[in-house]
Amino acid sequence: MSEVRIGVKKLVPEARLPRYAHVGEYGDLAADLYAAEGIILESGSTVAIPTGVAMEFPSTHGALVEDRSGLALKGVTTLAGVIDPGYRGEIRIVVTNLGAAAVEVKSGDRIAQLRIVQRIQASFTEVEELGEAARGAGGFGSTGVR
User: Fold this and answer.
1) Distance (Å, rounded) from C-alpha 71 to C-alpha 21?
2) Cα–Cα distance measured from residue 5 to residue 2, given in angstroms and rounded to the nearest whole number
3) Are 43 and 99 in contact (CB under 8 A)?
């Protein structure tokens, strides 16, 4: 397993660096991100929660922001979760509360997960036809499993 070094700058003293809860051979896929300030997330609202950190990714990597399962069970889900390697501003976690009740987020709470991904730059070419595949154009629900 190769290690990717990511510089993290605290923008406020109470900020916490991202951290893997479990490391090693069967460690976590994503690192925890922490709220730098408390907020009440009302039902139906969308807010950007500051983490108080900025990051410096190598040009070869970026990150995806993912839900925490405990918050997802309460209806809190993340949105707009792509962090490009050239971005150097504060990491803010955009969340929406789809649940019926307000959710309190305290400073220092784990609010999302940060999954480091390798950046692959593709080239897109217009074609007249696409090759055949077993799935074809089947989309949502096309497997018959519900």
Assistant:
1) 16
2) 10
3) yes
Do 108 and 16 form a contact (C-beta atoms < 8 A)?
Answer: yes
For 61, half-sphere exposure in the C-beta direction (CA atoms, 13 angstrom radius) is 15
Sequence spans of domains, the chain: 7-118
Class of domain 7-118: mainly beta
- 128: CB partners within 8 A, 6+ apart: none
Say if CB 51 and CB 109 are below 8 A apart: no
Spell 104-115 as b/e; 16+ CB within 10 A means b.
Answer: ebebebbbbbbb
DSSP 8-state assignment for residue 132: P
- In order along its 146 residues, the chain shows pLDDT tens digits of 678 999 999 999 999 999 999 999 999 999 999 999 999 999 999 999 999 999 999 999 999 999 999 999 999 999 989 999 999 999 999 999 999 999 999 999 999 999 999 999 999 999 999 998 887 777 777 666 65
Q: How is residue 51 annotated by DSSP?
A: E
CA 88 to chain CA centroid, Å, is: 16
Q: What is the dihedral of CA 89, 91, 94, 99, to 10 degrees?
A: -160
